[in-house]
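A student in our group prepared the protein record below, which I am reviewing. This is what I was given:
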Amino acid sequence: MNAKGKVLKYGSNVDTDVIIPARYLNTSDPKELAAHCMEDLDPDFRNKVEDGDIIVAEQNFGSGSSREHAPIAIKESGISCVIASSFARIFYRNSINIGLPIIESPEVVAETDDGDVLEVDFTKGEITNVTKGKTYTIQPFPEFIQELISAGGLIKYNKAKM
């Protein structure tokens, strides 16, 4: 399981109301949520993001509301994974549950710039900054989590097992 993409870098305390503003919570349509992802923080997000891109952020990414709308909006916008120094626990769990891989790595965050290209090998537990030619070791995802993410999230994983 791998991801490769250009970095969109953000600071600390990016909360779920910034990821998907509350005024759009009257829908659960993933495409509609993606159309408004990050628009209050980064109005050009939708124009900048390409399939496979990677969000890198400082501390406490995904704080705030426990709703799943935020990770759904991120995933549907084409982001392949999120790397942060730390995550709000409920956001972390919601992300895995909907099949969005997320990684905690303060070292990668500190040494990565907006626009860098990262390659992530979830099985080996490696992140390579292709732009800077540096490889970092991370905790590989357990096999079960890899299967869950590959299936597209917990619901799809469970349906496939039935």
Observations:
- The first strand starts at residue 2 and ends at 10.
- The helical segments are 16-19, 30-35, 45-48, 69-76, 89-98, 106-110, 143-151, 154-161.
- The two ends are 23 Å apart (CA to CA).
